[in-house]
Amino acid sequence: MSSHSSTARFAEARRVAIFGGTHGNEMSGVTLVNLWMKNSTEIRRKGVEVKPFITNPKAVEKCTRYVDTDLNRAFTPENLSTMGEHDLPYEVHRAQEINKIFGPKGSPEAYDVIFDLHNTTSNMGCTLILESSKDHFNLQMMNHIQKAIAPASCLVLLNEHPLLKYSTSRSVAKHPVGLEVGPQPQGVLRSNIFEAMRVILKHALDFIELFNEGMEFPPCTVEVFRVSERVDYPRDANGNIIAMVHPNLQDCDWEPLNPGDPMFQTFDGKTIHYQGSGTVYPTFINEAAYYEKQQAFVTTRRETLVASALRKA
Ligand SMILES: CC(=O)N[C@@H](CC(=O)O)C(=O)O
Ligand SMILES: [Zn+2]
């Protein structure tokens, strides 16, 4: 094996989309995208087409996460290839339309970058979500954003778990980037969360412009939190929840959780402790949308990835 570092080369990123309303009750993305569809001055960059797009207009209209099924789980090969336009769930049909406009997923014609804007009820702060540890373009983008917003911070959640990874709207692009900012209740706009999201996007678009202009990005390291396990609420035999997130864990996204630490509190006041084998970093703690997904939080492990030097081809 050769050990010399090489430069990753990608074509210019000419087509970029910003998705809002993949979940119709996550108001920062919905509001920003609607704003930018009216006036795109802020998202315009030299040599790039930046398209703001509401992905689930029916869910936005109803201010609900989805109408028939979760759009951010719908971009499976089966869904994208199935026929029978009329009896399909709304979001499956919509996924096919989105795949036609911004994809096809996995093809050379697909959009270069899709930013998908989400809010969480969890106390996660600014989080960028990646789906691959091998996408050096995205890793360099993470590094650029983190340096640009310092001393504010923005963590990177990496979901390439074989079972817990899902088929997102942004996965249609060559370089998918999720942006998750919280805490913000569903259907609510908070100015701090809105502005934080806006700033991240500004730096992300700046990165693309610099890359297209031919800037060379030296090798760097990126700290990521890799999705490890899903943890459900304790339940009775009928599937009813019998405990809440423990007060010591509530709002403590990204803080270390060690074996023996309090994790849940039953309705009669008993503490349930974390039984894992080592330190994990929980996130999406008590996310409202995840009750239906039987998930109280997800555990992650910290890891440092190396991004190779990057320059346009
Ligand atoms: C709270 C929420 O909707 N989170 C997103 C995370 C992501 O975009 O990967 C989701 O579950 O689809
Ligand atoms: Zn969402």
From TrEMBL:
Belongs to the AspA/AstE family. Aspartoacylase subfamily. HAMAP family: Aspartoacylase (MF_00704). Substrate binds at N72, R73, Y166, S167, T168, S169, R170. Binds 1 zinc ion per subunit. PANTHER family: ASPARTOACYLASE. Keywords: Cytoplasm, Hydrolase, Metal-binding, Nucleus, Zinc. This is Aspartoacylase. Residues 221-301 form the AstE/AspA barrel-sandwich hybrid domain. Its main location: cytoplasm. Pfam families: AstE_AspA_cat (PF24827), AstE_AspA_hybrid (PF04952). GO terms for molecular function: aspartoacylase activity; hydrolase activity, acting on ester bonds; metal ion binding. Its EC number is 3.5.1.15. The active site is at E180. Zn(2+) binds at H23, E26, H118. N-acetyl-L-aspartate binds at R65, E180, Y290. Residues 13-208 form the Succinylglutamate desuccinylase/Aspartoacylase catalytic domain. Its cofactor is Zn(2+). GO terms for cellular component: cytosol; nucleus. NCBIfam families: PRK02259.1. It comes from the Eukaryota. It is found in: Cytoplasm; Nucleus.
